[in-house]
Design the sequence.
């Protein structure tokens, strides 16, 4: 293997008078943004219940959907309060999102201890997302990370998408199971992982990058994925031990970052299969 190495309880809808002052009343206007402490949609809410992350379930009144009834039963069995609310209330809380008649209020999600995770032995892959801001991409990446059995997913505290309702929905709720760490400084996280025996592999289409399909993936790899428009930052590229790119047939020049992530993670997994088909750690 060649490459450089650097060690070192929910309130009821408030009602307000109409501007005409006729006494007719309406629900308060929609918020400008969806609250961060919610998940909506059947899959995301089911996952939130399964992960014990839901603290209250809101279900639209008058919706005859067996899956919603099942979710209500699961919530009640788990001691999670269930409230029937007008569909307009869910429209309001989701900013008009496709909620499928259900929304969960979410507890604060715990982060993993990256230092402790890095110290665990054996083959493992860690994902590090550098300034990826699209919730759809982050959600898809988290879903793949759980499927592959990633040891950790490192998300920046700033300049990147965090665990928002859009991320929960895009991940089909797998965000509730993803081993997420959010250190203050990505470069320091890279150095920590290198000190624990990880090799850092940056996805980069620039000159000199190795063909990812022929690359000899280290048993302990950190896969760095960059911003959708600018790629991996220069600082993290300089810290990387290797750079890899997926080969492209013309006229294709690039892939969506979530698609590329899936391909690269499974290239690593092909070389380092999980014992019994389960996760790595």
Sequence:
């Amino acid at each position: 293997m060649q490459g450089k190495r650097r060690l070192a309880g929910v309130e009821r809808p408030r009602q307000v008078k109409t501007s005409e002052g006729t006494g007719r009343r309406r629900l308060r206007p929609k918020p400008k943004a969806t609250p961060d402490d919610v998940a909506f949609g059947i899959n995301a809410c089911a996952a939130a219940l399964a992960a014990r992350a839901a603290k209250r379930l809101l279900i639209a009144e008058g919706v005859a959907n067996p899956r919603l009834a099942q979710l209500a039963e699961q919530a009640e069995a788990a001691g999670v309060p269930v409230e029937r609310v007008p569909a307009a209330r869910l429209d309001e809380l989701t900013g008009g999102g496709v909620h499928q008649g259900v929304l969960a209020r979410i507890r604060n999600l715990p982060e993993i201890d990256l230092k402790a995770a890095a110290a665990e032995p054996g083959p493992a892959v860690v994902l590090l997302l550098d300034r990826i801001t699209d919730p759809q991409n982050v959600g898809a990446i988290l879903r793949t990370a759980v499927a592959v059995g990633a040891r950790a997913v490192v998300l920046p505290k700033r300049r990147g998408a965090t665990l928002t309702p859009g991320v929960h929905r895009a991940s089909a709720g797998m965000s509730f199971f993803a081993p997420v760490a959010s250190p203050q400084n990505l470069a320091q996280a890279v150095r920590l992982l290198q000190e624990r025996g990880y090799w850092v592999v940056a996805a980069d289409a620039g000159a000199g990058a190795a063909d990812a399909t022929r690359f000899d993936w280290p048993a302990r790899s950190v896969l760095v994925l960059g911003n959708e428009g600018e790629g991996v930052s220069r600082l993290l590229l300089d810290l990387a031990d290797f750079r890899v790119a997926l080969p492209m047939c013309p006229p294709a020049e690039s892939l969506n970052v979530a698609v590329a992530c899936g391909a690269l993670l499974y290239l690593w997994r092909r070389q380092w299969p999980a014992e019994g088909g389960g996760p790595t750690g």
